[in-house]
Amino acid sequence: MPRFYCPQPLAAGATIDLPAAVAHHAWVVRLQPGTTLTLFNGEGGQFDAELLTLDKKGASARILAFTARECELPYPLTLVQALPEAGKMDWIIEKSVELGVAAIVPVLAQRSVVRLSGERAEKRHAHWQGIIVAAAEQSGRNRLPALAPLSQLREFTASAGGAQRILLSPRAQQPLAAWAAARAPQALTVLIGPEGGLTDEEEAAALEGGAIALGLGPRVLRTETAGLAVLATLAAIWGEH
Q1: How confident is the model at residue 218 (pLDDT cuts 50, 70, 90)?
Q2: What's the number of domains the chain is made of?
Q3: What contacts 114, CB < 8 A, 6 or more positions away?
Q4: pTM higher than 0.85 for the full model?
Q5: Could you tell me the CATH number of the domain that includes residue 133?
């Protein structure tokens, strides 16, 4: 059943105009009036709806019923990802949404190859937000992970409070799996470096800020693999409920 994100009030029995992006998608894939849709607005749960009208100018739907369906992890996980090169960030965001991340914080580290600021950073942020929406539609999530504005890594490491921070490091002596298995599920913030990793100075600042260094084994993972491996490992050990 097609699923679409509709950031507007939704209620059973209402007839609504679908957002322009949703209408365009429905037109491109040639949905027909009478098709049953699933709509969600990010506030939790989802709605069954019937497509009423569709043309190049727009689309409308009648909302039929609400289902209080949730598939969020019970322990919120935040991914702090140092900006990698080219399109790797798109992949990381898409897959981390599929794996249940609650928030994504893109940061610029000393070894980040890509440098964004001003209008370019704003455009990339909007692009990443679109990836989050598409990944939530595809994966069945009814709530959108939060996406923080791009910031400097030093700003993050200097901040205090919040969930326990995990620094994934190839030099760490303690394995993530063993650490997680000895603890109850909890909110975590996971920090992943860019290509080439974090500098010694950046790792030291993260540890001084309360992070603990954990590893994933003897192999060095790429930046686009590491965070996803952490999310998958935690879900496997702590479960989904």
Answers
A1: confident
A2: 2
A3: 83, 84, 85, 86
A4: yes
A5: 3.40.1280.10
